[in-house]
């Protein structure tokens, strides 16, 4: 009997991820995994008032070992001086984030006092992981989540803060998947945060359940795999397309009674020189009666910016089909421009479904609110406006053969108020109950009008999921946008499973293709995507993870040159300046470079495509998956 679909190809990659330690610790600690209850007391476990009180600091330091608080022996290690004399240790520890020299990276962070201790512990753990010292890496990350639960490392555009504790927990969760020979797995843990309370970056709450370590091997992982045909469906949410719950508590997705895993694409093609709205469904720049992006794009193989004889028109639909895409995410900013015949052909000819994503007040779309004040989910008139658009969207599309599911919102839950710190221009983050109840009303309306397709929320991370569980039970799945690093998506699967018993669709994941200060870097982008996609597979029903994954949507198909424009005319410039700090290979986000397809010099937009290595990575991976599934 075959293993769970899509996963057998991934199993083969595990052996490539193992690494022998590249350096050793003088003081690895007296305990392989630290028993914190021997040295202190957990208080308010499982609440936003969690705290750990140390009672035996000396004993905890001895148990923790080098680099792990409260142990400070790394600063006295003789190798610090040797590394400096060898010119391997730079004064700026930020130059030691994945520098390729794990030993130097470790001491740069472990011996430093120039940043907050939680951030230091996080990057100590990353250096230890790169150095093959996985157990010590997990000890460093667990110390960060237990000792400094509310710490944050940076903020982006005053939109959100990067909380260390959830990221540290996520790194621990990634270890058994990436390095199953590490020998340990953290179970029964949970770390979720409420950030930027009332718009204040320094005010954060984090709910921590410390969990405990158990022995875990590659053999344990392999034994946990269960073929889907052995699982019995015990709950069905939907009709033609349904989220299904299995008898082992895991979740999947079915289309007409057959398992379906979303291999999705964020499809928001734009023309260089234009800012949204640019309606790709109606695009016909050459006035020949054929849709430009669906049928007439061509791949510039040699990068000369000219359509050579061996570069025929092929179209995005065909390119996505060849890559293995089976669904695209469609932002519903307006309904009057929908090209239903085009979408019908997309499904009939190319086998690609559509996921309708109503912004649901994000960026004030469909709420009727002014940009200055933003969407107010407590306002009765705005609530009615958004529900009216949902009704019209469903009535227009509910019987269409290309429709897969509905999503409501796009990161509307981002922390902060609608007066300046929330890029989505809504007050959902500060009025979670109002937002959740409106989500529930909208989902109930969709179910009434269209019982055949599931509906979910488009969320940023796991924030507010506990509120949805209480106030929005009509939701059939949780859509999560997540950009947590190349190693995988970490704790979001387990957090979502514990907080809201619904399947998870990754609504966005990905990485830009530009290394700040150096130039385009397709290798880093492809590596990031592969690590994330493997994690999405790992957490599918029947596989060793949490069993709640129903797929993922790549962000995104094509570079959008308008994203960082601040003055008229800059829409024609491909910006190379970092937008903000983020968990990407170079530590920064370049918003105009997220496409797995480029637009060259922009002169042949919207027709020219430059296929990046990530495109071919997915194509190869999905071809292997399809062959294995037969």
Brief sketch in words of this structure:
It contains 18 helices and 27 strands. The protein is of the alpha/beta class.
Q: What's the level 1 CATH class of the largest domain?
A: Alpha Beta
CATH topology of the largest domain: TIM Barrel
> Which structural class fits the helix and strand makeup?
alpha/beta
Question: Biggest sheet, in brief?
Answer: 8 strands, parallel, barrel
| Helicity level | 25-40%
Strand order of the largest sheet: 13-15-16-17-18-19-20-23
Key words describing this protein structure:
globular; alpha/beta; TIM Barrel; disordered N terminus; four-stranded antiparallel β-sheet; eight-stranded parallel β-barrel; 30% helix; 630 residues; 3 domains
Please give a structural write-up:
By secondary structure, the chain is of the alpha/beta class. It folds into 3 domains: 8-222, no CATH class; 231-260, no CATH class; 262-629, TIM Barrel. The chain has 18 helices and 27 strands. The strands form 9 sheets. The chain has an 8-stranded parallel barrel with strand order 13-15-16-17-18-19-20-23, surrounded by 4 helices. The protein has a 4-stranded antiparallel sheet with strand order 9-10-11-12, with no helix packed on it. Helix 6 runs antiparallel to helix 7 (134-147), helix 6 packs parallel to helix 8 and helix 7 packs antiparallel against helix 8. It is globular. Mean pLDDT is 91; it is low at 1-18.
